[in-house]
Fold each of these.
Amino acid sequence: MTGRADASGDRAVAAGGNIEQVVTGDFSTQVEHGVLLPAESLSVPASGLVHLPERTALFVGRAEELARLDAGAPSGVQVLCGLGGIGKSTLAAHWAAGRIDDHHPVWWITAETVGELDAGLAALARAMQPAYVGVLPEDALRERALQWLAAHDHWLLVLDNVSDPADVKPLLARATRGRVLITSRRATGWQDLAETIAVPELDPEEAAALFARVCPGDGVAEVCAELGHLPLALRQAAAYCSEAGISPRAYLDLLARYPAETYALTAEGGETGRTVARVWQVTLDRLEDTPLAGRILGVLAWWASEGIPRRLLEPLGSPLEVTEAIRRLRAHSMIALDGDSLSVHRVVQAVVRAGGAGREEAGALLVGVVRRLPHPDEVRANLVAWQAIAAQAEALARHTGPEQDSGEWARLFEWAGLLFGMAADERAVFLATRATLGYVRLYGMEDKRALRALRTVMVGSRAGGSPELSELLLALHVGVYGPDDPRTIEARSRVAEFLLPSSRERAEALLRENVDRAVRSLGEDTRETFDARRALFAAGTDPQAAAADLEVLLARARDVLPESDDLIQIIEISLVAVLLESGRPERAVELAEAAVGHALERYGAARLETVTRRAYLATTLEGAGEDERARELARELLPVCRAALGEGEVTSIVRRLARKRLPSDG
């Protein structure tokens, strides 16, 4: 025996070195490999035992999540859950670094697997009691750490990137006296173990602040939006821009042209395994035993990022198969559920989409919906629900090019555009244009479907078209009806009027051609000829000459056309505008008042024709400088406009006039 050991009490045993047999009088025990530990090995440092990742200077925001962490949970266990790259670990490290003064020890364990968790606990035991190093095996060290945690208070463990709640359940059952903070991509399965805190993407201002700390410049807000305000993507993109010496806007261009490659980029020294192109592969690998989950994610990549009707996925499998696939995607934070709709982070979509899978299936599911459309009355009764489906078609169109569109896809996009309402929605313009291009590519310029799709949007929208689309609309009319058909002549006038602000020379050439074709093919006193002349006169650069020509034209139209023809009002409106421009406001007001009088006599005060003429009189009065009369008429007219026209453009004009402040108001 070496050393000295004292023992007291009945049948007590003490040893100062290695011993092989102990006899107490009751029984004997054979000790094969006894190890003597010095007394100081049983002590733990009083304070300062901290193991945390290096703190990042790029932490921003997260006030709500930090407040919830500060408040704690009754169980002492909280879980930060969310999508990979959302910033869970950064948030946990930032919060834990502020708890050093009131917790001991503060210990970080990477716990993606049970083996990593056990190794982290063993490392904690070695840090607490260095004398164990090289003496006790790993499993004994892990057990020693658990025993210590179970017997002491005021410690903090951070278990990072836990894959499965079951992996930490034994630890949580024993270590109940301190605090445990867990980060995990698993959004479900914690209800009996911990309080969950869902970590969202950063808000736009916080995202911009994070990016600008590394790489300020033009396009910061835009690149942050494109990256879905995802912290990992923002940090890597900003670092890459800074190192490459490019602006955020230049990075956006790279992202648009080379999405797959750009999402895999990182700055020198960055973790290539932590790029957004790879960070979700671990989760996808775990879902390989549910192949339908991968298929669904591939489909969702081509649709909108939120508001996706769950029922669109029903044809992909049996109800149980689809439900199970959705459950697993949600459990791993790859999608979120909100009632009967799904959402996917836009960067997840972009990375999955860059792989190319799911495009055709995403289109086929939507085409299947269009094929079995219900009666229009049912669509109108459930317009919001159908527009949610149309939104997926819009997203598909924006994520793809027209080069491979089928006729079914063109019809899908046309249908979706109609649901958004052609008169006002830019989305409708985009979809109708895409449908038109698809029809033209497949069937040529003589296809009536192409003309139908484009004419609907160009006629209904003032702001939605473009010079190129206007020219295409005219070419389609010529292709379908010929150059001299009344429908083509009318379209040529509308196209020319649209082109006037941007291409006056081209517009005037079209207007002159239109008059010549109308006179030659239809005659002098036809409605189409009157309209062609009206458009040509109104476009003239000499207001005095234009006013004289329109006065003659209006008189002739009243003689020839039926009094109910709305072209008479259109000519009146053109003439009034030219009169105001030429400095003849009295004549403009006189003409507008006469138009109101004719309408009152023919239709009465409540008819649409009369209401619109009175509204135009109010704007004419304003243009003539008679603001008080204009406001008085508008206030009288506003309730009538709302009743007859609803909240449309005319009502908006009248409302503005009714609320206009005048100098006399003080």
Amino acid sequence: MTNEPANSAVPAAPTLLTATTAPTQDAYRGRMYINGAWTESQDGTRFERHSPAHGHVVSTFPEATGADVEAAIKAADAAFRQGPWPKLKGVERARILLAVADGIKARVDKMSLLESLETGKPLSQARGEVSGCIDLWQYAAGLARTTSGDAYDSLGDDMLGIVLRQPIGVVGLITPWNFPLWILSQKLPFALAAGCTCIVKPSELTSSTTVMLMEVLEEAGVPAGVVNVVTGKGPTVGQPLAEHPAIDMLSFTGSTRVGSMLGGLATKNLKKIALELGGKNPQIVFPDCDWDAMVDAVVFGVYFNAGECCNSGSRVLVHESIAERFAQAVVERARQVPVGDPLHPDCKVGAIVSENQLSEILGNISKGVDAGARLRLGGKRYDAKGLYLEPTIISDVTPNMGIARDEIFGPVLVIIPFSDTQQAIDIANDTAYGLSAAVWSSDINTCLTVARGVDAGTVWVNTFLDGYPELPFGGFKSSGVGRELGKQAVEDYTETKTIQLHIGERKNWWLPRPVA
């Protein structure tokens, strides 16, 4: 275990909550779904997932072999080249997507419990996440009916130009452990709406809700081969999806390191890629902000999902005139956040997903303190069963420190002072990432200046972490390539084709002169 920083002056972190009842359900036994059939791996190997909060086995899955992956790719390719799905009317695909939304609605409780147990997130949050996926599938169903091409009747009397949008083909979808069903629902329904076929590789840490979703898709009438789910490790399952020539597009959400590697493999055979990667997202706080709303949003932004969120508001840039007042306020608010067993009804921050992740977070905290930053709250593992970390706040951070620049992916907030608006923008942009940001001020000129100046795919003004299916999501720089959600989401899974229709008699380019 990494050495944990100690500081006798650090206030006490919240007391750890304990659930009134322990989980008693049997472990979920998942299977892969390939070409319309539920199946084990070809060598019969399975792996287990233990609850990071409770330690017991909560689910088991087949560990795919290379042959299993090849079978899934072959099924998706046949379903696209020969099957009915790409040729269905938009309204027919829409009806099936709406049926999937209804199927999720009927399984919210079961899906939420398994997601909570696998990820360690509070059950109430898991329920909100699963319920929110219903809206994503309903929105994608609408796009299945409205995605269109274009026509050009301005090319002259003898020409009509038509631009079609056709499904790109077979898509590999690789999803992470932090929001397993939500992030899959940002990808899969939009790919299906476009008419694509898919192979899904969920994280080996959180595969349950993906497999359960396949049960829903089967009941909704998705044809065999259109969606295939293959469970297992990245080198065996994820890497072949990036490299295989029959995969036309790869969509990956996860770390920038892995995304860069997979993107490099995918582009070797000119595969289209969509990457949603890391973030080091700044909230920029000015003295004239709505103080209470800002403090609440800052604490929510960094401790939501235990900070295991690419959009986490993990660094706050605060004007130097209010920096100490701000630090004291967020420490006091964070000390009141309920931390503990994700099944406790009051829990807001649950367990860290794995021992490796917890160790990495502690290592980053230690590096920050060693570099001269001041630990204001937390910084230690709870002395209890389960993978729990105290909510942590670190001040006196300078922009060149590693904790100011690197994604920590845990419940750790760093506070960085600034002197004026331009310096705040410069500090915000001085990282490899550009996923999201927020600005807090009552001056609309300040808000717009920051919103325009910050390199980020999403900028919130006087709020944080709101999201809607209608609005595109994605990042600048090392935060990724492409956008999910919004009307463009379906278009990303298409290719454009130009058709030029000549009208009437075409003039000859050249005719030889008749021989005398």
